[in-house]
Amino acid sequence: MADVQLTNGFCARLNNSENEEDELYNSQPVIQFLSFKRVPPSGGASTVDRYRVIVSDGEHFQQSMLATQLNHLVEEEQVLKHSIAVIEKFTCNLVQGKKLLIILAMRVLKKEAEKIGNPTPLQLRGSSSGPSVEMQAQTPAVQSPAPSTFMNTPNVTNTTAPPAQPARQQTQAGRGGRHAIYPIESLSPYQNHWTIKARVTAKSDIRTWSNQRGEGKLFNVTLMDESGEIRATAFNAAVDEFYDRLQEGKVYLISKAKVNLAKKKFSNLNNEYELTLERSTEVEECPDATDVPTVKFTFVDIAGLQELPKDAICDVIGIVKEVGELSTITSKATNKEIPKRDLTVVDKSRFSVRVTLWGKQAEQYNATDQPVVAFKGAKVGDFQGRSLSVMSSSSIFINPDIPEAHLLRGWYDSIGAEQTYQSHTNTMPSGGGVNFDRAEIRSLHDVKTSDMGLSDRVDTFCSRATIMHIRNENIAYPACPTQGCGKKVLLMGDSWRCEKCDKSYPKPEYRYMISMAVADYSGQAWFSGFNDVGKAIFDISADELMDIKERDDTKFNQMLERAIGSTYNFACRARQDNFNDQTRVRYGISRILPLDYREEASYLANLLLRSEWSR
DNA sequence: CCCCCCCC
C-alpha cells in the first residue's frame, strides 16, 4: 500500500480555533491511533462500554472517543494500535474546558503501521502550564457529575472550567445552512448542533394528562435511521406545531430538538436518549428519501407467542380472519372511555391470536376483506393464554409489500381459509392463564389484608413463599383417565365411572389436589393447587404417590416431610368462597415455579440498574 | 412536562 500522510496540524486546529471552522468539521483528517482503552459506562447514562482512544496527527496527539457504533472495529481487531485511518465524520465536545474529539465514522487506511513521528501533547491557549490534554490511563482524578459520565472525564485538575458547550454552535447558527447528517446513534445531550434524517415509524394519538404537576397534551413518534431508533415527544404548543406535519412512514430532517436521558423502564427502544420536540425544533420533510430504511420486521409466528413472556414486544404477520366491532371499555385507572377493537389473526402455524387495537387505530381500522396485516412492536398479553395489544408505539401495516405478506396471501387463499386454528387458551402451562411476573410479587400479609378476591372478583397475584405444611388427607382424587377430562370418577362395582364421558374404566388416574400452608417473611396463607402443582412438588405422579401411600404409610409421610421448606414462585388466583354462611377468600395456584437462583440474582441486579437509570 | 396501552 502506498504511504499515507497524516493530516499534520489537525489537533492544533481542532484545539486552537477560536471560531469553529466548518471546513475543519467537513474535512476528513487522516490520523494514527496511539492507544485504545475500553471504559465502562461508569454509572451514568450509557450502558455500553466505549473506547477512549488517543489519535495522532504526527505532531500532536488528541484524546478522543469512538462512537459506540464503531466499537466493533476495535473488538474485531479491524483497527489496531498504530493503525492509520481517515476520520470521515466527527464532532467535538468540550469537557471541562478540554476538547474531546468524537469519532463518528472512520475508515482504516492502513491497519498495520509503525508509529509516525514523535507526537507531543498540545499546549493549550490560555491554559496554565498545568494540565495537558494528555490522557492518563488510570481512573480520572475528577469525575464529572452524573450525566456527563457519558464518557470518562480525562484527568484534569481544572474544575473551574465553564460548563460544556457544543463546539459547533457559532458557525452552524451563523451560516443558517444544513449541517452534516448525524446518525441517531450518535445523538447525546452533549452535542446540540446536529441534524438527523429519520423516518417516522410510529406515531401515537394525542394524549392529555392531568396530575398534581399540571396538565397538558402530548404525542410521541418513533424515529428511525440506519443507525437506530429514538423516541421523540412533543408537548402542548409543539403538539399543534408537529402533530399534522409528522406523518407515519415519511422521512424528515430534524434538528434543534432537545436530547434527554430516556427513562429505561418506560421505553422499549434501544436508545439511551429521547428527544423533546420544541417549537423551535426544525422539521423538514424529505419527500423522496430512499436512503433511510423502512421498518424491519422480526416476525414471530403465532404459535411461537407462547415462548415469549408476557409484556414482550414482538412483530407478527398474519391474516385478519375476523374483525370485531368497535367498542369502548372504561379504564379502571382513569375512568376514561377508550375505544377498542379486537382482531382475530391467524398464520401458517395454525394458531390464532386476539389482537386488540386501541384509540384511533381501533376507530380507523376498516379492512373487512381478510387482509394480511403486519404488526411492528405489539405487546404480548396473557389473556386466554396469549393475546396481543397494539401499543401507541406499534405500527400496523395492511397488505404490506413484503415477501412474507405475499407468501401468506397465497397460502391463505389456497388452503389457509379452510383450516382450523388453535387458540392459546389451552396450550399455556397450567391453563389458568396467570403467569408469574416477579415484578408483581406481593407479600402474603399484603395479599390477605387487601381486597383481593372480594366481591366476586377473581384477582391474580404472585408470591414467593415456602411450604410449611401439606395436608395429607385428600391429597389426590381418582380422576377419569381420558386425556383432557380429569373429572372425578366414582367406584361402581369393580369399575370407575366418569359421568362426563359416560364411560367406565377399570382403573382411575389419580390427580393431585394439594392444600398447603405457605409462608413468606410477612405471614402465612393456605394455597391450593391441582395436578401440575403436586407434580412440581413431589416430582412423581399422583398415581405413584397414592401407590406409596397404600403400601408404605411411613414413606408417604416422609415424602410429605421432604417437601417442607422448599421455596417457590407462585402465580395465584384469589377468589371468594361462601361456605356455611362464612365468606373467605381462597388462593388457587395457577403456576408454581422452582427458584432459579441465577435468574433471581440477575433480576435483582437489573432492578438496581434500573433504579439507577430512573434517578 | 408523559411513562397509560386500559376491558374480559
TrEMBL record:
Organism of derivation: Trametes coccinea (strain BRFM310)
GO BP terms in the entry: DNA recombination; DNA repair; DNA replication; telomere maintenance via telomerase
Pfam family, one: Rep-A_N
Compositional bias segments (type: Polar residues): 125-158
Similarity annotation: Belongs to the replication factor A protein 1 family.
Keyword Zinc: yes
Extent of Low complexity compositional bias: 159-173
One Gene Ontology MF term: zinc ion binding
Superkingdom of origin organism: Eukaryota
Disordered as annotated region, ranges: 120-177
OB domain span: 194-276
CC annotations in GO: chromosome, telomeric region; DNA replication factor A complex
Gene3D superfamilies for this protein: Nucleic acid-binding proteins
Residue ranges constituting the Replication protein A OB domain according to the UniProt record: 302-399
Subcellular location as annotated: Nucleus
Function: As part of the replication protein A (RPA/RP-A), a single-stranded DNA-binding heterotrimeric complex, may play an essential role in DNA replication, recombination and repair. Binds and stabilizes single-stranded DNA intermediates, preventing complementary DNA reannealing and recruiting different proteins involved in DNA metabolism.
Ranges where the Replication factor A C-terminal domain occurs: 462-604
Subunit structure: Component of the heterotrimeric canonical replication protein A complex (RPA).
InterPro entries: Euk_RPA1_DBD_C, NA-bd_OB-fold, NA-bd_OB_tRNA, Rep_factor-A_C, Rep_factor-A_N, REPA_OB_2, Rfa1
Record's keyword terms, sorted: DNA replication, DNA-binding, Metal-binding, Nucleus, Zinc, Zinc-finger
Domain Replication factor-A protein 1 N-terminal intervals: 24-110
Name listed for the protein in its UniProt record: Replication protein A subunit
